[in-house]
Amino acid sequence: MYNTITAKFGGTSLADASQIRKAVEIVKSDPARRYLVASAPGKRFSDDIKITDLLYTCHKQASNREDFTATLEKISRRYGEIIEALGVDFDLASEIATIKKNLEAGTSADYPASRGEYINSKIIAKFLGWPFVDAAEIIFFNENGLLDEAKTFQTAGDRLKALDHAVVPGFYGSMPDGKIKTFSRGGSDITGSIVARSVMADLYENWTDVSGMLSADPRIVDDPKVINYITYTELRELSYMGASVLHEDAVFPVRKAGIPINIRNTNKPEDKGTLIAASMPKDIAKRAVTGIAGRKGFSSIRVEKSMMNGETGFGARLLGIFARSGIPFEHCPTGIDTISVVVNSTLFDEKRDEILREIKSELDPDFITIEKNLAAIAIVGEGMVRVKGMAAKIFAALAGAGVNIRMIDQGSDELNIIVGVDEADYEKALKALYGEIIS
Ligand code: ADP
Ligand code: ASP
Ligand code: MG
User: What is the pTM of this model?
Assistant: First the structure.
């Protein structure tokens, strides 16, 4: 059906030799699966530690001039077990020695962090008998640390299309000076998307440990429904708001090229998973709500001033203060004499005094109220715009669960309704909303 597929496998899908065998079986079962993008070995059981986390620990220990050999040894042992069980010929000792040398020389964190995917991909390439292509040679960031799309798509496309098959490590690329730079956590999803776009694949498969994008967080809601089809826009919204199955930036490279994404379960390859595309089959399009996702960790800074609505530019000046402090705002609900800015609490706490000082001196408000410990929950669906009474349903669900709503924001595209609740009510609210709106 497809000619060229890029298949990205996540950390749990490659956590040990038996998981790697499953991934390899999947790849080999369809000749269209020509490019494999690999994560570092993730958790094998719930309190296991991801290789990437161990690598960050090594770096932290090295920077504090602490002994990191035991941590590095743990990493080495895990790869050692994989290599032995797969029966590949691989010089692990020299890879580990290089990491050690660079850590001792004071490398930045990105380099050791990237070695998790680097070594895993090299081992998998050996096992498959496919060429290994280092992401540092095909994925480029510009001086500002942003992906250089043109150079990347061109170089990666030329290099990979010339090969029948390749294994590419996820999570990193290189800066103009050649230094390794990683994406943010979970960034192998972005690499998969970049590779799919560069080779102009017909499909980007993202293999993980759940059977697709679920309509709510499975760690909170029991057995949430799988979303069979979802648009790029809805997916971006849900992943940005906390549905962490796919990195929030992973849609961009493929979306422009119209390459669909299929989220699949490595442990249940018979499940069809979630298909993500620009538009939906007709019957699916009737669905009002596609999914619910949320995150904790927000603060709301409410500024009150009588006759504010007559003061042109008040909102712009307020947002300007946050912008100058480098804090992006998430939401900005307004009243006649009030305006609130909802921001990430960790970022805000670092700049709190400076921001409050500037608000007082520049805007001379009557009151400033800070509400901390907010969680934001997004109810997302392109079909919502056509449905009457959605807000009423949301309020009824939350009232029924005894949850106090502290903020409401409807996206200007009517694609989502976002409610802010106390962090302590987050799980209860999510369950109630799922029960009322989706199940
Ligand atoms: P991988 O290692 O394959 O990249 P991740 O751990 O990054 O996998 O993402 C998969 C996990 O995302 C699932 O195990 C699940 O716990 C979590 N998750 C959170 N919200 C959702 C959701 N709405 N749908 C599916 N999975 C979700
Ligand atoms: N290994 C990296 C992480 O743990 C990247 C990824 O898995 O996508 O964040
Ligand atoms: Mg992931």
Answer: 0.91
